[in-house]
Design goal:
The protein is α/β, with parallel strands linked by helices. It is 40% helix and 17% strand. Helix 8 packs across helix 9. The strands form 4 sheets. It has a 7-stranded parallel beta sheet with strand order 3-2-1-4-5-7-11, sandwiched between helices.
Length: 290
Protein backbone atom coordinates (compact mmCIF):
# COMPACT_ATOMS: atom_id res chain seq x y z
CA UNK A 1 0.00 0.00 0.00
CA UNK A 2 1.27 3.48 -0.82
CA UNK A 3 0.63 5.88 2.06
CA UNK A 4 1.23 9.63 2.12
CA UNK A 5 1.74 11.09 5.59
CA UNK A 6 1.50 14.81 6.29
CA UNK A 7 3.14 15.60 9.63
CA UNK A 8 5.31 12.51 9.36
CA UNK A 9 8.19 14.00 11.36
CA UNK A 10 6.02 15.07 14.31
CA UNK A 11 5.09 13.41 17.60
CA UNK A 12 2.44 11.08 16.14
CA UNK A 13 3.73 11.05 12.58
CA UNK A 14 7.23 9.72 13.20
CA UNK A 15 5.91 6.74 15.18
CA UNK A 16 3.30 6.11 12.48
CA UNK A 17 5.88 6.18 9.68
CA UNK A 18 8.10 3.68 11.50
CA UNK A 19 5.16 1.30 11.99
CA UNK A 20 4.08 1.54 8.35
CA UNK A 21 7.61 0.88 7.12
CA UNK A 22 7.86 -2.15 9.42
CA UNK A 23 4.73 -3.64 7.88
CA UNK A 24 6.08 -3.13 4.35
CA UNK A 25 4.11 -0.15 3.08
CA UNK A 26 5.55 2.42 0.69
CA UNK A 27 5.57 5.63 2.75
CA UNK A 28 5.98 9.16 1.40
CA UNK A 29 6.34 11.93 3.95
CA UNK A 30 5.01 15.32 2.87
CA UNK A 31 7.28 18.04 4.20
CA UNK A 32 8.33 21.63 3.60
CA UNK A 33 11.89 20.28 3.87
CA UNK A 34 11.75 16.84 2.25
CA UNK A 35 15.55 16.59 2.19
CA UNK A 36 15.53 16.32 6.01
CA UNK A 37 13.15 13.34 6.12
CA UNK A 38 15.00 10.31 7.49
CA UNK A 39 12.24 7.67 7.58
CA UNK A 40 10.14 7.16 4.47
CA UNK A 41 10.66 9.10 1.26
CA UNK A 42 10.37 12.87 1.64
CA UNK A 43 8.29 14.78 -0.90
CA UNK A 44 7.33 18.48 -1.07
CA UNK A 45 3.76 19.75 -0.69
CA UNK A 46 3.82 20.60 -4.39
CA UNK A 47 4.10 16.89 -5.35
CA UNK A 48 0.40 16.65 -6.19
CA UNK A 49 0.72 13.50 -8.31
CA UNK A 50 2.45 11.62 -5.48
CA UNK A 51 -0.25 12.59 -2.98
CA UNK A 52 -3.12 11.87 -5.38
CA UNK A 53 -1.74 8.43 -6.28
CA UNK A 54 -1.56 7.24 -2.66
CA UNK A 55 -3.92 4.52 -1.46
CA UNK A 56 -4.21 6.35 1.86
CA UNK A 57 -3.45 9.91 2.92
CA UNK A 58 -2.91 10.52 6.63
CA UNK A 59 -3.04 14.06 8.00
CA UNK A 60 -1.46 14.63 11.43
CA UNK A 61 -0.19 18.18 10.83
CA UNK A 62 -0.65 20.85 13.47
CA UNK A 63 1.15 23.59 15.38
CA UNK A 64 1.69 22.73 19.05
CA UNK A 65 -1.16 24.04 21.23
CA UNK A 66 0.64 23.59 24.56
CA UNK A 67 1.90 27.14 25.12
CA UNK A 68 0.43 30.56 25.89
CA UNK A 69 -2.00 31.55 23.14
CA UNK A 70 -0.85 34.89 21.81
CA UNK A 71 -2.70 36.27 18.80
CA UNK A 72 0.16 35.10 16.58
CA UNK A 73 0.19 31.58 18.04
CA UNK A 74 -3.59 31.31 17.64
CA UNK A 75 -3.21 32.24 14.00
CA UNK A 76 -0.51 29.58 13.50
CA UNK A 77 -2.52 26.92 15.34
CA UNK A 78 -5.54 27.49 13.11
CA UNK A 79 -3.76 28.02 9.81
CA UNK A 80 -1.38 25.07 10.22
CA UNK A 81 -4.36 22.73 10.47
CA UNK A 82 -6.81 24.23 7.99
CA UNK A 83 -4.32 25.14 5.25
CA UNK A 84 -2.58 21.75 5.35
CA UNK A 85 -5.87 19.86 5.27
CA UNK A 86 -7.19 21.98 2.41
CA UNK A 87 -3.96 21.43 0.44
CA UNK A 88 -4.26 17.64 0.84
CA UNK A 89 -7.88 17.66 -0.29
CA UNK A 90 -7.00 19.83 -3.28
CA UNK A 91 -4.18 17.45 -4.26
CA UNK A 92 -6.49 14.43 -4.12
CA UNK A 93 -9.15 16.27 -6.09
CA UNK A 94 -6.68 17.14 -8.86
CA UNK A 95 -5.62 13.51 -9.28
CA UNK A 96 -7.40 10.67 -11.06
CA UNK A 97 -10.41 9.01 -9.48
CA UNK A 98 -9.41 6.05 -7.32
CA UNK A 99 -10.36 4.26 -4.14
CA UNK A 100 -8.44 5.89 -1.32
CA UNK A 101 -8.73 6.58 2.40
CA UNK A 102 -8.20 10.00 3.96
CA UNK A 103 -7.53 9.82 7.71
CA UNK A 104 -7.42 13.28 9.26
CA UNK A 105 -6.67 14.22 12.85
CA UNK A 106 -8.90 16.35 15.02
CA UNK A 107 -9.13 16.66 18.81
CA UNK A 108 -11.52 16.39 21.74
CA UNK A 109 -11.22 20.16 22.04
CA UNK A 110 -14.13 20.06 19.57
CA UNK A 111 -16.46 19.57 22.54
CA UNK A 112 -15.14 22.48 24.60
CA UNK A 113 -14.99 22.31 28.43
CA UNK A 114 -18.06 20.25 29.39
CA UNK A 115 -17.89 19.45 33.11
CA UNK A 116 -19.49 16.11 33.99
CA UNK A 117 -21.18 15.42 30.63
CA UNK A 118 -20.22 12.10 29.00
CA UNK A 119 -19.43 12.84 25.38
CA UNK A 120 -20.04 10.46 22.48
CA UNK A 121 -19.40 11.36 18.85
CA UNK A 122 -22.97 12.63 18.51
CA UNK A 123 -22.43 15.36 21.13
CA UNK A 124 -22.52 18.96 19.89
CA UNK A 125 -19.46 21.12 19.50
CA UNK A 126 -18.69 23.43 22.40
CA UNK A 127 -17.35 26.91 22.94
CA UNK A 128 -13.83 28.28 23.05
CA UNK A 129 -10.85 28.67 20.77
CA UNK A 130 -10.08 24.96 20.37
CA UNK A 131 -13.69 24.15 19.56
CA UNK A 132 -13.63 26.74 16.78
CA UNK A 133 -10.28 25.46 15.47
CA UNK A 134 -11.48 21.86 15.33
CA UNK A 135 -14.76 22.81 13.66
CA UNK A 136 -12.85 24.53 10.85
CA UNK A 137 -10.31 21.68 10.72
CA UNK A 138 -13.01 19.04 10.36
CA UNK A 139 -14.91 21.14 7.81
CA UNK A 140 -11.75 21.27 5.68
CA UNK A 141 -11.33 17.48 5.98
CA UNK A 142 -14.90 16.91 4.83
CA UNK A 143 -13.87 18.55 1.57
CA UNK A 144 -12.57 15.07 0.68
CA UNK A 145 -16.05 13.52 0.89
CA UNK A 146 -16.83 12.05 -2.50
CA UNK A 147 -13.20 11.63 -3.56
CA UNK A 148 -12.02 9.57 -0.57
CA UNK A 149 -13.32 7.50 2.30
CA UNK A 150 -12.97 10.24 4.90
CA UNK A 151 -12.19 9.33 8.52
CA UNK A 152 -11.82 12.00 11.21
CA UNK A 153 -10.25 11.04 14.53
CA UNK A 154 -10.82 13.26 17.59
CA UNK A 155 -7.78 12.45 19.70
CA UNK A 156 -7.54 12.91 23.44
CA UNK A 157 -4.25 13.73 25.20
CA UNK A 158 -1.79 11.43 23.42
CA UNK A 159 0.68 9.79 25.81
CA UNK A 160 4.27 8.77 25.05
CA UNK A 161 7.46 9.60 26.92
CA UNK A 162 9.28 11.26 24.01
CA UNK A 163 6.84 14.06 23.28
CA UNK A 164 3.45 15.65 23.77
CA UNK A 165 1.99 16.62 27.13
CA UNK A 166 3.61 13.77 29.06
CA UNK A 167 7.13 14.83 28.18
CA UNK A 168 6.39 18.27 29.63
CA UNK A 169 4.94 16.76 32.81
CA UNK A 170 7.81 14.41 33.56
CA UNK A 171 10.48 16.79 34.99
CA UNK A 172 8.46 18.02 38.02
CA UNK A 173 7.03 14.56 38.70
CA UNK A 174 10.50 13.00 38.61
CA UNK A 175 11.61 15.60 41.15
CA UNK A 176 8.68 14.68 43.40
CA UNK A 177 7.00 18.08 43.01
CA UNK A 178 4.26 17.08 40.57
CA UNK A 179 0.58 16.90 41.36
CA UNK A 180 -2.93 17.76 40.24
CA UNK A 181 -3.76 20.88 38.26
CA UNK A 182 -6.05 23.29 40.08
CA UNK A 183 -8.80 21.35 41.87
CA UNK A 184 -7.88 18.15 40.01
CA UNK A 185 -11.58 17.46 39.46
CA UNK A 186 -11.53 18.14 35.71
CA UNK A 187 -11.76 15.17 33.37
CA UNK A 188 -8.86 14.10 31.17
CA UNK A 189 -9.54 12.07 28.05
CA UNK A 190 -6.27 10.42 27.09
CA UNK A 191 -4.94 7.75 24.72
CA UNK A 192 -1.68 5.82 24.44
CA UNK A 193 0.21 6.75 21.27
CA UNK A 194 0.48 3.08 20.29
CA UNK A 195 -3.32 2.89 20.23
CA UNK A 196 -3.41 6.02 18.06
CA UNK A 197 -1.12 4.30 15.54
CA UNK A 198 -3.21 1.12 15.68
CA UNK A 199 -6.40 3.12 15.12
CA UNK A 200 -4.94 4.80 12.04
CA UNK A 201 -3.98 1.39 10.65
CA UNK A 202 -7.49 0.13 11.41
CA UNK A 203 -9.03 3.07 9.54
CA UNK A 204 -6.81 2.59 6.50
CA UNK A 205 -7.29 -1.17 6.31
CA UNK A 206 -11.01 -1.43 7.02
CA UNK A 207 -13.14 -0.23 4.06
CA UNK A 208 -16.23 0.12 6.28
CA UNK A 209 -14.61 2.68 8.62
CA UNK A 210 -15.86 6.14 7.69
CA UNK A 211 -16.89 9.34 9.46
CA UNK A 212 -15.97 10.73 12.86
CA UNK A 213 -14.58 8.77 15.81
CA UNK A 214 -13.36 9.62 19.30
CA UNK A 215 -9.95 8.01 19.74
CA UNK A 216 -9.62 8.14 23.50
CA UNK A 217 -9.06 5.34 25.97
CA UNK A 218 -12.32 3.81 27.25
CA UNK A 219 -11.57 4.97 30.79
CA UNK A 220 -11.12 8.76 31.06
CA UNK A 221 -9.82 9.93 34.43
CA UNK A 222 -9.96 13.00 36.59
CA UNK A 223 -6.80 15.06 36.63
CA UNK A 224 -6.06 14.20 40.27
CA UNK A 225 -6.20 10.48 39.42
CA UNK A 226 -3.93 11.04 36.44
CA UNK A 227 -1.39 12.69 38.77
CA UNK A 228 -1.61 9.80 41.25
CA UNK A 229 -1.14 7.22 38.50
CA UNK A 230 1.87 9.06 37.09
CA UNK A 231 3.39 9.32 40.56
CA UNK A 232 2.91 5.58 41.09
CA UNK A 233 4.53 4.80 37.74
CA UNK A 234 7.56 6.94 38.60
CA UNK A 235 7.66 5.91 42.31
CA UNK A 236 7.43 9.56 43.33
CA UNK A 237 5.02 11.57 45.47
CA UNK A 238 2.41 13.45 43.44
CA UNK A 239 0.38 15.61 45.78
CA UNK A 240 1.61 19.18 45.19
CA UNK A 241 -1.12 20.99 43.21
CA UNK A 242 -0.44 23.61 40.56
CA UNK A 243 -2.60 26.57 41.64
CA UNK A 244 -5.26 27.62 39.16
CA UNK A 245 -4.56 31.35 39.57
CA UNK A 246 -0.86 30.88 38.74
CA UNK A 247 -1.69 28.86 35.63
CA UNK A 248 -4.13 31.55 34.47
CA UNK A 249 -1.41 34.17 34.91
CA UNK A 250 1.17 32.09 33.03
CA UNK A 251 -0.96 30.69 30.21
CA UNK A 252 -4.14 32.77 29.97
CA UNK A 253 -6.90 31.24 27.84
CA UNK A 254 -4.83 28.12 27.18
CA UNK A 255 -4.88 27.28 30.89
CA UNK A 256 -8.64 27.79 31.11
CA UNK A 257 -9.42 25.50 28.17
CA UNK A 258 -6.68 22.88 28.24
CA UNK A 259 -5.50 22.64 31.85
CA UNK A 260 -8.39 23.68 34.09
CA UNK A 261 -11.24 22.65 31.77
CA UNK A 262 -11.79 19.17 30.48
CA UNK A 263 -14.01 16.67 28.73
CA UNK A 264 -15.20 13.17 29.63
CA UNK A 265 -14.98 11.64 26.15
CA UNK A 266 -15.61 7.98 25.34
CA UNK A 267 -14.79 6.09 22.10
CA UNK A 268 -18.34 4.84 21.49
CA UNK A 269 -18.16 4.32 17.71
CA UNK A 270 -14.70 2.78 17.54
CA UNK A 271 -15.43 0.17 20.21
CA UNK A 272 -18.87 -0.56 18.75
CA UNK A 273 -17.33 -1.13 15.31
CA UNK A 274 -14.64 -3.48 16.51
CA UNK A 275 -11.55 -1.48 17.44
CA UNK A 276 -9.94 -2.78 20.64
CA UNK A 277 -7.74 -0.51 22.73
CA UNK A 278 -4.60 -2.28 23.88
CA UNK A 279 -4.18 0.20 26.75
CA UNK A 280 -7.60 0.80 28.26
CA UNK A 281 -6.47 1.98 31.69
CA UNK A 282 -3.91 4.57 32.67
CA UNK A 283 -1.90 2.08 34.74
CA UNK A 284 -1.62 -0.21 31.68
CA UNK A 285 -0.47 2.68 29.53
CA UNK A 286 2.12 3.87 32.05
CA UNK A 287 3.50 0.34 32.47
CA UNK A 288 3.91 0.23 28.69
CA UNK A 289 5.47 3.71 28.48
CA UNK A 290 7.89 3.38 31.39
Amino acid sequence: MKIAVAGGTGFIGRALVQKLLQRGDEVVVISRHPETVRAGRGIPWSAVDEIASADAVVNVVGENVGARWTAERKRRILESRVKATTALVDAMRRGPEKRRAFVSASAVGFYGPRGEEILHESASSGSGFLAEVTRQWERAAHGADGIARTVIFRFGVVLARDGGALKQMLPPFRLGIGGPIGSGQQWMSWVDREDVIRAIEWAMDRPDVQGTYNITAPEPVRNRDFARALGRALHRPSFLPAPAFALRLLFGDMAEEMLLGGQCVVPARATREGFTFRYSTLDESFRHIF
